[in-house]
What does this fold into?
Amino acid sequence: AKRRGRGRFELFDEELRARAGERVRLERDLHRALEREQFRVVYQPVVDVRTRQVVGAEALLRWDHPDWGTVSPMEFIPVAEESGDIVAIGEWVLREACGQVSRWQQRWPEFRLSVNVSGRQVAEPGLPERVAAILAEEGLAPGTLGLEITESVLMEADGDPEVILARLREAGARLLLDDFGTGYSSLSYLKRFPLDTLKIDRSFVDGLGSEDEDSAIVAAIVQLASTLDLTVVAEGVETEEQLAQLLALQCDLAQGYLLSRPIDAPDLERLLGDTPEP
Ligand code: C2E
Ligand code: CA
Ligand code: CA
Ligand code: CA
It folds into this structure.
């Protein structure tokens, strides 16, 4: 790089420094965000494909930064993973979301919640005990809480993911395999791990009705799930056409902007209130 002349080298250098500076600030501010109460949880409704009734929701984390506005979890979750802050943040999300659902349980006893968990959280000893403690404190019935885990989390887990997952299930959590179909060893995972639900990745739902390959892949996943007695959820449903295809393929559940964006707890409560009880 030095041969290119001083000017360019310095420009490059400055840009690098600026970017590194941003990253340092992101890390530092993220580390403080919990105590500064800058996080909130939004809920994306999950609906029954046949009836369109809301049967549950996925909890999604939001960070309101005083200068940057709402920062996407795609940006800050990897940073929190690397620093280790994700462990405390993840526990906060679990408590917050479970506390919310415990307030709804009287009125909507069938309501199911799912929360994303990261690799660092799964690797941390004691997650099953903490999950059990939160469920007990909030008085949630077994099966109310689901944990969404990606294949990469299972792949990177040191220790024995089978044992950890079995203990999480004993603690009363359901297990959902997130972004299904995007990883490498999906099929062997279905055999190895005690899963309850597959979430079909948005990338396959995208082309439903327009791309033959996507329809074939979704059909195969739904079939597989049915054979293995797993519930199947389609993610990222944006059009009526996609939902019609999912109905024809007998997919159980769906979530996506067509049905609802992620919303705050009061809005979800209003939505549930409008839905006739099953
Ligand atoms: P994910 O678990 O795959 O979550 C689904 C993402 O798709 C969410 O983005 C959701 O808002 C978005 N989405 C839902 N419906 C549609 C749709 O119809 N079209 C499109 N284009 N997008 C849709 P979000 O909230 O930005 O979260 C991004 C990712 O960040 C999540 O992907 C998850 O991996 C991670 N994340 C979010 N909250 C948490 C958390 O509390 N803990 C951990 N560990 N990760 C989280
Ligand atoms: Ca998820
Ligand atoms: Ca997903
Ligand atoms: Ca995803």
About this structure: The pocket of calcium ion (ligand 3) is lined by residues 178-179, 199, 235 (CB under 6 Å). Strands lie at 39-48, 54-65, 69-71, 112-116, 145-150, 174-180, 197-200, 231-234, 253-254.
